[in-house]
């Protein structure tokens, strides 16, 4: 893993660019009564929506959060066994914005969310702070 990161830094510098800052995710989230520990985050632009795409690679669960007017964050929970997601509404407050860096023309994003919505296996509760998600 270090080699891949090291080579990307060397290639970026050799091409006259600067390497993107590392992704940061700090989350305390529960999805369906289970800990949701996202280790992957992406700008929703790459998935045709405005927001953040979070993944827990251990469980296969994905959480997409879409900022509303500050108090009406919406989203989707996508489980490993479902091809489509369960829609979440009125989840809570969220900030989300480009952080001034980009990769391949797609801006990296940073933000926070405090969420509480859904029910049963799709209930989502907790908070997340993310930075430099591509």
Low-confidence stretches: 1-15
Oligomer: single chain
* Biggest sheet statistics: 5 strands, antiparallel
By secondary-structure content and strand pairing, the structural class works out as mainly beta
Question: What's the total helix number?
Answer: 1
Mean pLDDT: 85
Strand content: over 45%
Distance between the termini: 18 Å
What shape does the CA trace take? globular
Q: What's the total count of β strands?
A: 10
Query: What's the structural domain tally?
Result: 1
Describe this structure in words.
The chain has 134 residues and is mostly beta strands. It has one domain (21-133). It has one helix at 2-14, and strands spanning 24-31, 34-36, 40-43, 52-56, 61-66, 74-78, 86-88, 92-103, 106-117, 124-133. It has a five-stranded antiparallel sheet, with no helix packed on it. The protein has a five-stranded antiparallel sheet with strand order 3-4-5-6-7, with no helix packed on it. Strand 6 (74-78) and strand 7 form a beta hairpin. Residues 1-15 have low confidence and may be disordered.
